[in-house]
Amino acid sequence: MAEELSKFGHSIFIVDNDPKAVSRTTTGNPLVTIILGDGCEIDTLTKAGANDADVVAAVTGDDEDNLVVSLLAKQEFAVPRVVARVNYPSNEWMFNSMWGVDVSVSTPHLLTALVEEAVAIGSLVKLLSLDHGKAGLNEVTLAPQSPAIGSTVANLKLPRESAVVAIIRDGHVVVPAPDIVLLEGDEVLVLATGDVEAELGRALIGPK
Amino acid sequence: MFGRKKQPSAEAVIAGTTPIADVVARTTVTIVGQVVRMQSQSAVELPSLVVSIKDSSGTANASWTGRRSLGGIALGRRVIITGVATRTSGLLTFVNPEYELLL
């Protein structure tokens, strides 16, 4: 992260209280300075230049530490922008101006949001890979415009190396017998080998 | 008053304090002034107490997060505030500063 930011010309101070991590992270980058110390202590933050920092980011794996750093940055150093990482979604409600946090970044929430987006209706989601990635289980929830709606399983224009393994309809598993007619909202699980995503998409989602 | 120390007048300068107009943002400073406005915010369940402090040179805000009131802080009260201030669009704001009450 520091390397990325330094590419934009920002000078960066990293604070870590683990000597091993500090010695491991050696950079030849003149813009990045690593400081050994506890970021929850004012002295360490002073050393790291918090008094004239534009942004302080509290991104440890410990929510309590992140809140302490945020509050200190705001209260003791009047840092204009404080970014904090939320590790447990149940703590998210505390990451606000009361604790000096301007922007909170929640990794779990970000992941769930990405997953939710991915499982949105009408897109192909790869659920898992089998046989070292050569085969994959894919899922499509049939959107109203899907060409598969009204077709029987036998008549689906699926690629050769693929098979419908199950249909989930209203929370129940329907065995994909050849004469089953697909309906809107069906979750269709397709096992396929090779690179057939595009073809699967055409058969189950329709033209882009 | 008998047996009491004479209190400084409203405009008396207390050693080590900075006139509000001269405060440099993001440095630790001490100001002294009178509470001229108090606002207790509880919007969106984030309580905070915002107090405006005025001296002869200007006005600054002090905001205490998580508080709806602070002992001794009342309109007209003279207070000493120590902390680090930010200046956003001309307004000086201290977040959770130390405060001392003057009689």
Features:
heterodimer, A: 208 residues, alpha/beta, Rossmann fold, Alpha-Beta Plaits, 2 domains, five-stranded antiparallel β-sheet, three-stranded parallel β-sheet, 6 helices, B: 103 residues, mainly beta, OB fold (Dihydrolipoamide Acetyltransferase, E2P)
Task: Explain this structure.
The complex is a heterodimer of chains A (208) and B (103). Helices cover 25% and strands 27% of the residues of chain A. Chain A has 208 residues and is α/β, with parallel strands linked by helices. Chain A has 2 domains: 2-108, 3-Layer(aba) Sandwich (Rossmann fold), CATH 3.40.50; 119-204, 2-Layer Sandwich (Alpha-Beta Plaits), CATH 3.30.70.1450. In chain A, the strands form 3 sheets. A 5-stranded antiparallel sheet of chain A has the order 6-7-10-8-9. A 3-stranded parallel sheet of chain A has the order 3-4-5. The two termini of chain A are 35 Å apart. The mean pLDDT of chain A is 85. Chain B has a single domain (20-102), classed as Nucleic acid-binding proteins (OB fold (Dihydrolipoamide Acetyltransferase, E2P)). In chain B, 0% of the residues lie in helices and 48% in strands. Chain B contains no helices and 6 strands. Chain B has a 5-stranded mixed beta barrel with strand order 1-2-3-5-4. The interface between A and B is medium-sized, with 14 and 14 residues.
Itemize the secondary structure elements and their pairings:
The complex is a heterodimer of chains A (208) and B (103).
Chain A: H1 2-7, E1 12-16, H2 19-24, E2 32-36, H3 42-47, E3 55-58, H4 63-77, E4 81-86, E5 103-106, H5 107-118, E6 124-130, E7 135-141, E8 162-169, E9 172-174, E10 187-193, H6 197-204
Parallel strand pairs in A: 1-2, 3-4, 4-5
Antiparallel strand pairs in A: 6-7, 7-10, 8-9, 8-10
Chain B: E1 28-41, E2 48-54, E3 59-65, E4 78-88, E5 91-95, E6 98-102
Parallel strand pairs in B: 3-5
Antiparallel strand pairs in B: 1-2, 1-4, 2-3, 4-5, 4-6
Average pLDDT of chain A works out at 85
Report the uncertain regions of chain A: none
CATH superfamily of chain B: Nucleic acid-binding proteins
Please estimate the helix content of chain A.
25-40%
Please identify the structural class of chain A as seen in this structure.
alpha/beta
